[in-house]
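Example protein was shown:

_____
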Amino acid sequence: MTNLPRQEATHRKPWYQILYLQVLIAVLLGIVVGYLNPGLGKSLKPLGDGFINLVKMIIAPIIFCTVVHGIAAMSDVKKLGRIGIKALIYFEVVSTLALLIGLIVVNLLHPGTGFNIDLKSLEAEHVQQSQSLAQKAHSLNPTEFLLNIIPSSFFNAFATGDILQVLLVAILSGFAISFMGEHGKPVLVAIDFGVRTFFGIMRMVIRVAPIGAFGAMAFTIGSQGLSALKSLGYLMVCFYVTAFLFVIVVLGAIAAFNGFSIFRFLNYISEELLLVLGTSSSETALPGMLEKMRRLGCSSTTVGLVIPMGYSFNLDGTNIYMTMAALFLAQATNTHLALGQQLTLLAVAMLSSKGATGVTGAGFITLAATLSVVPAVPIGSLAILVGIDRFMSECRALVNLVGNGLATVVVSLWENELTRDELNANLLRSKSLADITPEEIDAELEAEEKPVSLPRQSLPQ
């Protein structure tokens, strides 16, 4: 458990130096620039891409160092299995609930009724794009998904940036260091320095977040425009409202049952939420979430396992979108789906939502894979959604971020890593990643570290 002493502020920052306000202003300016001058907005795309690449550059090493340190410093190696099992059970229950809610809402509100879409009227470019993604969907299967978790080499996991591959390498490395006993101490010290180094880099990178958010939002509005929002506005409203209610009602109930407020939690991660909103990428918030969850009192082991696993198995926002979008397309093309077909679609969505993690266009790929089991709905109808997918992806990423952060806290509470009182006290101490000092990171690592002067352990037979 990490229970840091309260840092008394000697002075309050001017509002213009607060990072989340800078990001919010940048997002609003990006919307204005993209709307008033679409050409200029599209030309600003490199600003957003550059920032996202800077963050991606350090995600793999941060996850690796965090997980290795957490496992190697554990006194009870059985805890790793407990955390993994509890997390997977939580993921499956909440993800299935998200799929069901999307299915129910679209049946009640019928956002696609009245469109009477003729596939011949759709833009050829969008149809071609949707068919290409559908071909990728057909190549996905559980065996391939499991094999892809194993990297072709130790360093290939870092070169590709595949989170699950990095997680596997980190778990094996953590156990190897733990089994080395006293001989593992120098390696663990080096890992500690790695944690400090990469979070130090992240503190520098995060300071240019407003520039990245401005460029990404200007490009989104400049390239997509607002015309798509007008024609498919009802679907977007239905999805955004459903996602909002899912966070407040469903995730809020889970939070309340575990003794804390969802609103206080949302305030605690507000900076990360704005980063996701501005860049339309959940990856930009991943390093900040890892550090903030540790500062709440969650162990490095829990944080390092639950959050990366969550981005494969706990995509609540994506799950809501998948069932809503699939039935919307059926309604828009006047395709009647019986209850049995809808339940089949739901069952396939539970599997396909896990198979396209980390693939470009993952939202469309998983949707195409789901639609492939219901041939009555033409795959080409995916082209209807191409124009608004960027706006939908922002909402999906926001809900995914909240869901995975909440899952981390809940699993930590189940593991008795912190008490409810400690959690609520730490939720009031939100601090930007850019403002966290190296001394505070040192204190976190020392608080959960065990002596490494253990006898050498033999590998299980």
About this structure: The radius of gyration is 22 Å. The longest helix spans residues 78-109. The chain has 23 helices and no strands.
